């Protein structure tokens, strides 16, 4: 099974940068480059609901129907970043 970003659920294999970066410059094995750079989240104030809405919007811009985009993002609240 493909490893998913633990913030937005994008398959890490689809990340054009090959993953986010930790503070020491190494590649993150948990987060994509759109969510995590230099050891910090790119949207630190996002909630899981904010991330879902953002991802649905981005997927729609790529031509995906809203319902399908919502289906792809349903699991976001269960990802590691959002568990409390």
Describe it.
The model has no long low-confidence stretch (mean pLDDT 95). The protein is globular, with a radius of gyration of 12 Å. It contains two helices and two strands. With 84 residues, it is mostly helical.
Share of β-strand residues: under 5%
Oligomer: single chain
Strand-pairing-aware structural class: mainly alpha
Give the number of helices.
2
Average pLDDT, rounded to a whole number, is: 95
**Largest beta-sheet details:** 2 strands, antiparallel
Features of the shown structure:
26% helix; single chain; 2 helices; mainly alpha; 5% strand; two-stranded antiparallel sheet; 84 residues; 2 strands
Topology at a glance:
Layout: E1 36-37, E2 40-41, H1 48-61, H2 66-73
Antiparallel strand pairs: 1-2
Helix pairs in contact: 1-2
In short:
The chain has 84 residues and is mainly alpha-helical. The chain contains two helices and two strands, in the order E-E-H-H. The protein is globular, with a radius of gyration of 12 Å.
